Amino acid sequence: MKCENCSKKECSKKQKNDDTQSTPANALTSNAELEEKNEFHALDNAKTLLSDCLACDSCMTSEEGARVFQQNQKELFRVLNLNKKCDTSKHKVLAVSICPQSLPYFAAKFDLSVNDAARRLCGFLKSLGVHYVFDTTIAADFSILESQREFVQRYRQRNQEEHALPMFASACPGWIRYAERVLTNLVTSHICTAKSPQQIMGSLVKGYFARQKNLSPDKIFHVVVAPCYDKKLEALREDFYTALWNSPEVDCVLTSGEIVQIMEQKNVSAKDVAEVAVDSLFGEIKEGDVVRHDGKTSDGYLEHIFKHAAKELFGIDVKEITYKALKNKDFQEVTLEKDGETLLRFAAAYGFRNIQNMVLKMKKGKFSYHFVEVLACPGGCLNGKGQAPAEEAGKPDKALLNRMAEVYAAIPVRLPEANVHVQKMYQDWLEGMDSTKAQQTLHTTYGAVNQTANNLDIKW
Questions:
Q1: How far apart are CA 27 and CA 251, in angstroms?
Q2: Lowest CB count within 10 Å: 28, 107, 195, 431, which one?
């Protein structure tokens, strides 16, 4: 059969899923887990279905599959239980970072305002034994600012550098995985080198925050709550690992739905939990109301980069952006025109059908876009399979999705440039925006990975 998400005509999804549910579960059961009754013992082993994850078959090695399988609720409770033991050498400072696109899910599911959802989610996590709960919006600030700067540089070098344009967004791990494993050299050199918000948050927690608290990175167990399963794969990348401390930037990724499963296991509703203010990376101060970036359902790379480039390259202030839907609502374009000339042409391509069409245009030399915000999930990050799973009929819960979109749209927008903490950290922590440390901390590289599969160019 043909899997709707994989890059091969023949997919072994069912067989591989069956194997994942049996062998790895036994193989990964530790002696410690057998010796003690886990606090979360009643929950079934987490099953990350390959239909939920956008990487399958030759896109994921058996070792990666085993490590992804370990990123579940039981891993969180393993650390929580270790913290209750007398052996303090095994204790960890447990920090949880929450993606902005996860909060509307909790707000919509429990009929709360987004600010109430953030505080009650923080209260619930701390009731479990979590020490710090952070909002990853600041990491997205860094990612957007670095992406803006890189686009302007690429645009100015477009006549000298063959692969300068188009530039593709790098925040979606499903898209990155597909590009590296399937599309290879055709697009990897066009991908923005700025890290995703998740991984920049990893650098902030295990770099900046660890230094502030005088902790070594390996003494922090960092969990990210995200809307999609592919964030688990992203956390496994070798370039997001600190060999000196034997510590990844993100130790475990749990989806929004997996957090709700913990609530259900404990028979707790978010409405029953005490409100606790979300922590800040900066001392004892707490976060205020939730803010977001421009953009309909994601972090708004297109809108921010478009406005920045219009001002920086052409001296034009763009107040409002007009999207023009092309073949479908998940492929839209934005243009900047002056005196009948098109100066900038951006696009948003969501879902693999649109990604595939985009790649086919590139191969035919008919690609006219300067920048594309690429997201693997149709509808964007709010529609991540980790919080918007399909119902029995195979269709998403439209009422929930619509409510989530309404909640997200109502969150106030804050420009990344307006975050005074970011500007201060560039100087005090990263030694300047153009420093070697800023480059190493906020950027990475993408390249082709050997791919053995045949018939990869499927028309979605």
A1: 20
A2: 431
